[in-house]
Amino acid sequence: MYALRRPPATPATTRGRAIGYSAAARRALPFFLNTFRASSTSETEETTNVLRMVMFGKPGAGKGTLSARLVKKYEILSLSTGDLLRQHIQERTEVGREAEEIVAQGKLLPDDVMLKIVASKLDHLRNKHWILDGFPRTVGQGELLDAHLKKQGTPLSLVVNLDVPDDVILGRISDRWVHPPSGRVYNLSYNPPKVDGFDDETGEPLIKRPDDNPEIFARRLNQFYASTSPLLEYYSKAAQKPTRLPRLTPHQHPHQLAFPFAHTMLLKTLSGKTSDEIWVQLDALVRSAFPGLKERSPSLETRRRHSLSDAVVAQAGNLAQAPPLQGDS
Ligand code: AMP
């Protein structure tokens, strides 16, 4: 199942989506200029210390690469909707059959379909730190996600906007090769596989994503400007006003509902031409905003269970009621 992000067997490796983090700290922290934080708070541990993050940016901006670095370093789970859809397509599920043509053409799937497949994963992750990569992609999806999370009392705590120039991205795409089962990404110019055409960790063949050709990619970039970029405005408004979350107790009458906890969401823009440059800023950001985040222990068991979907499987195993991952439609 290749929506799962598995870390490479050797932590020292510097390749793929779970790439190493060798960059020097070249930049100061300009992202603080782009910060919006509502002033108040008497936040609870529930709302403040848990990383519930959207990794936002153009296609090819490095969302997958940077999410994988966070997942490799910290006890965070990630979910890429692009990987999830490619998995559905490969497995010929109902969603996969609907998605195939749309993904191939660089268009977007309907908001309600996307929310359904994402929500079914998120529902298992209330007290975990997580990252969404590639979702939401429209204001409609953003609203649906917010409503869903608010209902659970687990609103977003961080949105990171990756700001990478278009010409840099276009240069990356033509050289991009991927290993679908792990989501590892290689670039022939600056991050080539050890053996041409094969994944470093498994030796399996790499593929070129069919939607990474110049024509379709241009459409995906246009799609980003038309449908996805308005989300930034949506999140910058949300980041400026604290949300009150209901505190529910089992025997409470609806009129007695209390809304005592103010929750704020951070929105940060991180700029750079390479993922290494941005990584330095991103790592500093999550460390300072979420001091409770634990670094991942190198134990095999922990590494095995780092991905969001793995955690779902593990939890389902514990409860002896495995949700049908394949049919998350
Ligand atoms: P990605 O790997 O994130 O670039 O996603 C690959 C393709 O999957 C996109 O070009 C869309 O066709 C589809 N897709 C991924 N995420 C979404 C989403 N949130 N909403 C609609 N379509 C999506």
Automatic annotation (TrEMBL):
It comes from the Eukaryota. Keywords: Kinase, Nucleotide-binding, Transferase. One of its GO terms (molecular function) is ATP binding. Residues 176-211 form the Adenylate kinase active site lid domain. Belongs to the adenylate kinase family. HAMAP family: Adenylate_kinase_Adk. PANTHER family: NUCLEOTIDE KINASE. This is Adenylate kinase. It comes from Mycena albidolilacea.
